[in-house]
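[retry 2/3] Histidine ammonia-lyase: previous attempt timed out, resubmitting with same input.
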Amino acid sequence: MRDNGVVNVGPEPLSFADVVKVARGGAAVRLTEDAVAAIAAARQRVEELAESPVPAYGISTGFGALATRHIDPALRAQLQRSLVRSHAAGSGPEVETEVVRALMLLRLHTLATGHTGVRPTTAKALAGLISAGITPIVHEYGSLGCSGDLAPLAHVALALMGEGSVRDRSGTVTSASEALKQAGIEPVELAAKEGLALINGTDGMLGMLILAIDDLTRLLKTADISAAMSVEALLGTDRVFAPELQALRPHPGQALAAANMTKILDRSGIMASHRDPENCTRVQDAYSLRCAPQVAGAARDTVDHAARVATWELASAVDNPAVLADGRVESNGNFHGAPVAYVLDFLAVVAADVASMSERRTDRFLDKARNHGLPAFLADDPGVDSGHMIAQYTQAAIVSEMKRLAAPASVDSIPSSAMQEDHVSMGWGAARKLRRSVDGLTRVLAVEILTAARALDLRAPLTPAPATAAVVAALRETIPGPGTDRYLAPEIESAVRLVADGVVVSAVEAVTGPLA
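[retry 2/3] Histidine ammonia-lyase: success.
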């Protein structure tokens, strides 16, 4: 991970940029003085309750269905250790480092609000773990998205205790005890309520939502670029993207997408070649070309809604029980992941539909009956060469998978904890499948761009727009132009990297200025 500075963590909400800097940029974190003061004040109240003969959930009682048992003071440290060890029950593949770092940061922020009751030393230890680049090993399965992302967060808490496995800054798997020693961090001896406070949050699903929004913001610009390239290379019209037509249906995302496409196609020699009635005999284009702003625009508006939900969550302190400003410690249901789960599912629908339309445009390029004068499958010698025939198969396979991933996770619920936790959100599962959908959309758009660029080259001597020509030039640095069949998989992967790294968007924006 590259060094991306330091993010201050206090009681005030974090920004999306803060989360991305820590998760993807490797930024260190620093607890503010206000955070340390808020944490200390809440801790004082928890310690008062720990000494009281009156049972307080999570402080002097068991958890979940075992909340009716009063725990002797001599056993309360063991109670917290046992909670973390028993809940660190994840299974399956390892979760990505960026997801775990986002999860850790968001849990630290909740601690910094002063509503959880941990000690300042415990919060500082978690901050130290993040800053040292130590990432606990978290597994794919273990969260139901209610009572928080329990198992994933428990694996982080376990590492704070000096137990379990982690990856160090170099990515090497090592024991938590060794990594803490090397970083000069003392293992935490958990005190009353601290184990519960460290694991009872929706931080994993929220972190994945924020990262998906970051990705989709770039990918929807890319979708406008790929659609514009296809409209251009398929001799379509840009008149349908005119602002006066978009104003008839005033969805904000639609207007932005259409404006992007108009900017991208500006000064296109290919478009100019068939504007007059003599050279343009088609009344209107197919839906996948003509309605691109309507689909990509609706996707934008959905991402905006998801961002509002994420913003509310970033202003939240998710824990149970919660320490209130007046000193009361109250049970609550804020750990339920439904608000986040719903938009995670909604974004998977969006990704699948944008990818589906992209695949349809690619398919039009390959059909001689619909590609307006291009060779079949864009092949050099159709029959001897297959051109991009199987690239579309790859797209179709990904889109089919994305449609399955668009089935909502949040409509499912399996009761747990002896029916105490009888309705759960499955938000973690929604987040995990959205990550696969985002990867799928990246790949589908990359294939469309690769195919459209080949078609634009085949339109020579007609010249593409400066913006689309810049995309073609970026591809041609690593991917040759049209010719006889070649090993295609590396070319697809190269295009995928250019999309994922933002090179395609940057190439266009260098010509057009910022896209919306």
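[retry 2/3] Histidine ammonia-lyase: The two ends are 29 Å apart (CA to CA).
[retry 2/3] clearing retry counter.
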